[in-house]
Design goal:
Blueprint (H helix, E strand, L loop, with lengths): L2 H56 L3 H12 L4 E7 L5 E4 L1 H4 L7 H9 L3 E7 L2 E11 L4 E10 L1 H53 L17 H28 L8 H12 L4 E4 L6 E5 L2 E5 L4 H13 L2 E5 L14 E4 L6 E6 L3 H20 L10 H22 L6 E5 L6 H8 L4 E5 L7 H4 L5 H8 L4 E4 L2 H14 L3 E3 L4 E4 L2 E7 L23 H7 L6 E8 L6 H14 L7 E8 L6 H21 L7 E5 L4 H10 L2 E4 L8 H9 L6 E5 L12 E3 L4 H13 L2 H17 L2 H13 L4 H4 L1
The structure holds 6-O-phosphono-beta-D-fructofuranose (F6P).
Length: 751
């Protein structure tokens, strides 16, 4: 039985029971009252009449007695009066009664014999009658009896009326109460429950019945339930996503993603369509040094990751031309083919004025967005003039993208990073057919942290122009969705991890970026044959050391470089046996030094190196060698390969590809990786020695552990990490992202 039916039946039974009890009580009370009144009235009449009847009986005057009786009996509701002799036979009577009562009249006989008044109800011709008999006393003995007959049928009529009223009252109460109950139940319970169920179904399936996202029911008695269910649904979806993320990392992929496989896959997925990458940083930069023009590959994860993908896709990479000889090396349409030694794709350069570079790159991107997204306690700076330049440059990039994709059908546009947050919406507005992905290379903070950005809504709206937004890890996706939930009116689907707004849906997914993994791939043959000569390399930098550690960074405050050096200092204090035998080589590329925070950091790093070296160094040894310069991949690779350990101590980092590059370089399988728990890479490289870079003691102990670890354990850890990187190469990242983007259905497909 449904709850409403049960409620109606229960209410009806209760109301009926209460009404019946109440009616019985009322009938009983009324009956008592009416009978009492009847008895009193009869008694008074009888008393007054017996005064006159008794003398007439004694004087034996039947005619007079009869007249008295007839006259007296003619009163309202009094049916009559009868006088009986000693045997109960009628002496005088109201005429109508004479034939209707039995003789001898039993009550009269009993009253005479017992000499007391008798009363009760009798039936005379179907009509209830109250009879009161009292003995009549003479001077010496009883003379007979006298009976008063009162009509009592009005009592039954009155009691029937009470019954009828109660029945009507019962029906009216039942109807009203049931009606009100139904309204309240529907309004406050079944209605909201149905709404919650529909909303939960939509949460679960991601399908809306109306086509419009359903708003979670609020403000009702069930509001606490709704909020709990919403949390539950979100937690379940997050737990599932986390489990999926872990499973993807644990399971070996069906086969390794190599350059060749990605090439074949792209051919299949894109069917000849080109790929367009847009980023601030260009992959090849031309610098004039005197009369010589040098081409360098800038430091940073973005170029390391994307250049190999572009080499096999023959697409176009649109980026800022930041080298002082860049304009001299492009054609009339600002393009050139790269890499110089083996031209495989097109680089389209975009030019900025000094003001634009200042406001957009140094200002808004690197003094605002960068510290906003990295939680390293460096305060973000937001200036209106920077924001204006940021918007102008994003529009400038839009024009370049539109020129490049002109004539291309449903082009795939992969936008990179926080410099170009507005670009997805700007491109989509002008080319709705383009499939746009935005990959965010840095972390995404929680809503509270992001909330300090004065242009939070504009940034989010710009990003949500993309069809897919990618982060390195699920945690950053969750933070992003929470942020959108906090600051924009939109529908978040925690099952699909998507945001719908104004008819457009953006998927928000983790795509953990990676590096090449040489040697497993015909397109990327093993380039290095000889292990570099350790003694020669160390001699080149002027040190002799038994043990070697390496660090490779852009000099950035997020990388935890001073923290790392202080840990090395502590290590030498705690384990002095390594003084003279352990050297750490830092390959640090100065970066963004135009910004005071970076300029000061460089000075701070220099100061730390000098202080620690001065404290511990000997004639032929020093603990830290700081190679402050831009280093080529080959130079870096040589150090990776002779190092006993590599330290990645980021205070906060989206992924950190140095960690993966170091693993990929360890063909002999001996090096140990010390890795910050705050770098995205720590989710995949579980066999690194995971450290908290703020914990100096822990890092010093990690150094000791790395240098004293048994060869077998080092080899096993590295083997497992190499398998993780080998199965999740940059080709897999690109394959997953491109597949997800290419398979998105366009609005026309859906129509
Ligand atoms: O990893 C984040 C990132 O901004 C990348 O986009 C870039 O490759 C790297 O840092 C270097 O930064 P910049 O381009 O400012 O030198």
């Amino acid at each position: 039985m449904k709850i409403t039916k049960r409620l109606i039946v229960a209410l009806t039974i209760v109301i009926a029971a209460v009404t019946v009890l109440f009616a019985l009580y009322q009938v009983h009370e009324e009956k008592q009252r009416l009978i009492g009144e009847l008895e009193r009235r009869t008694l008074i009449l009888a008393d007054s009449l017996q005064e006159s009847v008794a003398p007439l009986m004694q004087s034996d005057s039947p005619a007079k007695l009869n007249r008295l009786v007839v006259r007296f009996g003619n009163r309202e509701r009094l049916r009559g009066v009868v006088v009986f002799d000693r045997q109960g036979t009628i002496l005088a009577s109201t005429p109508e009664l004479r034939q209707k009562i039995p003789q001898p009249f039993p009550e009269a006989v009993r009253s005479f014999l017992e000499n007391r008044a008798e009363s009760g109800f009798i039936n005379i011709e179907g009509s209830r009658t109250y009879v009161y008999v009292l003995p009549l006393a003479g001077e010496e003995a009883l003379l007979g009896t006298m009976a008063l007959f009162h009509d009592a049928s009005y009592i039954d009529v009155r009691l029937m009326e009470i019954g009828k009223h109660n029945l009507l009252r019962f029906l009216a109460h039942t109807l009203l109460i049931v009606l009100i109950t139904l309204i309240v139940v529907r309004w406050s319970i079944t209605g909201p429950i149905a709404q919650i169920a529909a909303w939960m179904r939509e949460q679960r399936t991601g399908k809306s019945r109306t086509g419009q996202p359903m708003i979670a029911p609020r403000g009702d008695v069930l509001a606490p339930l709704v909020s709990e269910v919403a949390h539950l649904a979100k937690s379940l979806a997050l737990a599932r996503a986390k489990a999926d993320e872990k499973a993807v990392m644990r399971l070996p992929s069906d086969s390794s993603w190599t350059a060749q496989r990605l090439k074949d896959h792209m051919q299949e997925e894109l069917g000849g369509r080109k790929l367009f990458v847009v980023s601030n940083r260009e992959p090849y930069l031309h610098l004039r040094e005197g009369s010589v023009v040098r081409c360098i590959i800038p430091a940073g994860g973005l170029v390391t990751a994307l250049d190999p993908v572009m080499r096999i896709s023959d697409g176009t990479w649109i980026a800022h031309g930041s080298g002082n000889a860049d304009r001299d090396t492009v054609d009339a349409r600002d393009r050139l083919r790269v890499p110089p030694e083996n031209p495989s794709y097109t680089l389209r350069r975009v030019w900025f004025t000094k003001e634009e570079e200042e406001g957009y790159y140094y200002g808004f991107s690197n003094e605002g967005m960068w510290p906003l997204c990295h939680i390293t306690h460096t305060r973000p700076l937001f200036r209106l003039e920077d924001w204006i330049e940021y918007q102008k440059v994003n529009e400038k990039f839009t024009e370049a993208v539109l020129q490049e994709i002109d004539g291309e059908e449903s082009p795939l546009v992969l936008i990179q990073d926080y410099h170009l947050a507005l670009l997805p919406l700007l491109v989509k507005k002008r080319r709705p057919d383009a499939k746009v992905a935005l990959f965010w290379h840095i972390p995404w903070p929680n809503p509270e942290s992001f909330g300090i950005c004065p242009w939070q809504q504009e940034i989010l709206l710009g990003m949500l122009g993309a069809d897919i937004i990618g982060f390195h890890i699920q945690f950053h996706c969750n933070n992003f969705l929470d942020t959108v939930d906090r600051f924009l009116e939109s529908k978040i689907d925690w099952e699909q991890f998507s945001v719908s707004r104004g008819g457009h849906t953006t998927l928000v997914k983790p795509f953990p970026i990676s590096v090449r993994f040489d040697g497993i791939d015909p397109l990327e043959p093993k380039e290095r044959v000889h292990t570099p000569d350790r003694a020669e390399l160390l001699a080149g930098i002027g040190v002799q050391a038994k043990y070697l550690g390496v660090g490779v960074d852009r000099i950035d405050y997020t990388k935890g470089i001073p923290e790392r050096f202080r840990a090395i200092e502590r290590f030498l204090e705690k384990y002095p046996e390594f003084i003279g035998s352990f050297t750490f080589v830092e390959l640090g590329a100065p970066s963004r030094t135009h910004i005071k925070r970076y300029y000061d950091l460089l000075a701070e790093v220099d100061e730390a190196v000098n202080r620690i070296n001065w404290r511990f160094q000997t004639a032929e040894w020093k603990p830290i060698v700081f190679l402050k310069a831009h280093h080529s991949h080959d130079e870096i690779d040589r150090f990776y390969r002779i190092a006993d350990l590599c330290m990645v101590t980021s205070l906060h980092d989206g992924m950190n590809l140095v960690a993966k590059e170091f693993v990929a370089s360890q063909e002999d399988g001996e090096g140990v990786l010390i890795l910050s728990q705050f770098a995205g890479a720590s989710r995949e490289l579980k066999d690194a020695i995971i450290v908290n870079p703020y914990d100096r003691e822990e890092m010093a102990d990690a150094l000791f552990l790395s240098l004293t670890m048994k060869q077998q354990e080092r080899a096993e850890r590295m083997r497992r990490m190499r398998r993780a990187v080998g199965e999740n190469t940059i080709y897999r990242w690109a394959g997953d992202l491109i597949t997800a983007l290419a398979r998105l259905r366009s609005p026309e497909d859906r129509a």
